[in-house]
Amino acid sequence: METRAAVLYEMGLPAPYKESQPLKIETLKLEPPKQGELLIKIRAAGLCHSDLSVINGSRPRPMPMALGHEAAGEVIEAGEGITDLKPGDHVVCSFVPSCGHCLPCQEGRPALCEPGAKANNEGEMLSGGRRLKKNGKEINHHLGVSGFAEYAVVSRNSVVKVDPEIPFSKVAIFGCAVITGVGAVINTARVKPGSSVAVVGLGGIGLNALLGAVLAGARKVIAVDINTQKLEIAKKLGATETFNSRNPDVIKEIRSATDGGVDYAFETAGAVPAMETAYRITKRGGMTVTTGLPDPSHQFSFPQVTLTAEERTVKGSYLGSCVPSRDIPRFIELYKQGRLPVDRLLTDTLPFEKINEGFDKLANGEAARLVVEM
User: Fold this and answer.
1) What is the DSSP annotation of 222-271?
2) How many C-beta atoms surround the C-beta of residue 19 within 10 A?
3) Which of 127, 147, 190, 345 is deepest in the core (most CB within 10 A)?
4) What's the mean per-residue pLDDT of the chain?
5) What is the pLDDT of residue 216?
């Protein structure tokens, strides 16, 4: 069959993307699902910095590539061997297809699935190969999803069945922004009630981390960003204090306001200066967690002695240390109860044809979360 998809042929084209048009909406040939795979009609897909980092070249991937990884849709066809999903089911995609058999998967850490990571790095499906072609030439998959498309073939291990009552534009963000941000707080750091938390970088993941801190019962929730509009959003979502990181004294002021630093600091911007700020505002005995994916060449340094002398912890969090099949339904239920109002982060929905303009808004910090609807 054929499908329209947003294809990136060259990384690093200059902004504004409305003019350079890095994403080309192409008509591609899509092969039918093989054993253990699904054909999904994509209904909505979120624009994420993980997509932007491929567009700007800071996260190198094989080209050409059909982008998009935070997507929700409807099952059209289930491949051989799939008995628990049927046409008409609503699903959310997860950007790490977990094999269930490697050591990390067996240890309950599917975000670190080894075959999944290999497939993602090579632009392939979990079972190998590619299902997209243009004029007979293969197009690489983005994180096993390639969700900026009308249709996608994905591994059964890349999807989670969800409540059909929730609009696709809202449920799509649970596949990345929610599980990464909230999961970093709940799963990676295991924030304790009554503790103090700071979130440095208020994009979609950072604002979800903030919601996670409120959910966890933090007594102080400090929001840090260079964008005053994002700081205002953070206040409405439960931040107890906000700080503009353009202020040269911001670290001193936060440490003063928190009696020496916070118990947990989350860096979600994917930038070394943000990580440095997060580390320096973490108190003695505290934990600094990063969800950011900066350019691989960028280096972060800190006084090594503080790890021992101050019993510090520095942790990375990928996919929010989540088990998607467990955590996405949990987070959706909390959303339905009004305890995790992630829909308030949805800045706007866009038609597929304006996807490049959407990435301009994302790059300029003009949006918390944008979703394209198919």
Assistant:
1) EEEES-HHHHHHHHHTT-SEEEETTSTTHHHHHHHHTTS-EEEEEE-S--
2) 10
3) 147
4) 96
5) 98
* Residue pLDDT, tens place only, 94-145: 999 999 999 999 999 999 999 999 999 999 999 999 999 999 999 999 999 9
Burial 98-126 (b: 16+ CB within 10 A, else e): bbeebebbeeebbbbbebbbebbeebbbb
Q: How many other C-beta atoms can be found within 10 angstroms of the C-beta atom of residue 355?
A: 23
pLDDT band at 366, cuts 50/70/90? confident
What is the reported pLDDT for 105? 95
Secondary element (H or E) of residue 293: none
Kindly give, in sequence order, each residue whose CB lies less than 8 Å from that of residue 185, ignoring residues fewer than 6 positions away. 191, 197, 209, 212, 213, 215, 216, 264, 266
β pairing state of 132-134 and 196-200: unpaired
Taking a C-beta distance cutoff of 8 angstroms, is the pair 313, 301 a contact?
no
3-state helix, strand, coil in the chain (%, to 5): 35, 30, 40
Task: Using alpha carbons, select from 295, 5, 274, 310 the residue that is nearest to residue 149.
Answer: 5
| pLDDT of residue 340 exceeding 90 | yes
Going from the N-terminus, what domains does the chain have, and what CATH number goes with each?
2-175+341-373 (3.90.180.10), 179-318 (3.40.50.720)
Q: 182 — phi, psi (to 5°)?
A: -65, -40
Residues 30-71 have pLDDT tens digits of 999 999 999 999 999 999 999 999 999 999 999 999 999 999
| pLDDT tens column, 219-239 | 999 999 999 999 999 999 999
β-strand 132-134 against 23-30: which pairing, if any? Answer: antiparallel
User: Distance between CA 201 and CA 198 in Å, rounded?
Assistant: 10
Check: CB of residue 223 under 8 Å from CB of residue 231: yes
- Contact criterion met (CB below 8 Å) for 315 and 339: no
